[in-house]
UniProtKB/TrEMBL annotation:
InterPro entries: Homeodomain-like_sf, NagB/RpiA_transferase-like, RNA_pol_sigma70_r4, SorC_transcr_regulators, Sugar-bd_dom_put
Keyword Ribosomal protein: no
Coiled coil: none
Residues covered by the RNA polymerase sigma-70 region domain: 15-45
GO molecular-function term, one example from the UniProt record: carbohydrate binding
Domain Sugar-binding: 64-316
Protein's UniProt name: Transcriptional regulator
Family the UniProt entry places it in: Belongs to the SorC transcriptional regulatory family.
Any one GO BP annotation for this protein: DNA-templated transcription initiation
Keywords of this entry: DNA-binding, Transcription, Transcription regulation
Amino acid sequence: MPAARDVSLIVSVARLYYDQGLSQSQIAAELNLSRSNVSRILSQAKERGIVEVIIHDPAGPPVRVASLEQQLQAAYGLGDVHVVAATRSSAPEMTARQGALVFTQRLAGVRRVGVSWGQAVQSVIDHLEQQRLRPVPELFPLVGGLSALDQLASGESVLRVLSAKLEARAHTLYAPAVLESAETVRSLRTESTIASVLEAAAAVELALVGIGSVGVHSSLHIVERMKLTDAEKRTFAKQHPVGDICARLVDADGRPVGAPAEDRVLAVTFAELRAIPEVVGVVFGVEKAPGVSGVLRSGALDTVVLDEHLARELLSTV
């Protein structure tokens, strides 16, 4: 049996058994150990946390990875973190299911709820059970629509489905999230029907949002729809945007990106988003890591739900 300090032997045995698929007898022969010693070493690997066994049950509740949650909390100064165990292919499903559980827990007693749009938000809402809440909440869009999104993940669709699930009244923002000029945004904000919805959205008690990464999926279309001039593109690039939340862009340190991008967006402001008592962010996919890292540093989220592969990618860069 190895000494307590002989971690390298434990790791070697664990890799041969779990990664390479060798039997305990084969490992014993290769390392000149007895088979009983190999068995004890594998047991010690589990006891010391060198090996973690996670069972992925597609029909069961999502399994959380506590060690990754604690590391993310420490690395980013986060509050409530939910990291779900999943294969890469099951990550969207498992993350959305956990997001639905978290969102349902947060709904109790809430009168005003805000939502953004996107695949993750839509998936969470799809996994919600039909509910009859008291008091009945009112639903508000935190951001205008984005026509480039799949119709099912657009802001209007998200509100419609959530309204049906919660038997709640939904208020609609009939305006795009991103416009080609700051003047148009300012003009729309003076329209009473738009101003009243955005004002109410800024006063919600609970928000469900997705997290974007510049150049990936819907975030790519956010920048494209701004129709920035060459000079504006240079100014934009100098701010080093990496991620977005409610179409509001941030840099790698979580600082909100200013003009010209900020002035082209019709949504709650970043300051208003930070002031919402409980903001739940849901995201999956390692390709979003740069943007997610920036958003996590912004202070906009109170709770984040993500998959273990994205969590590991985030931790590898801090």
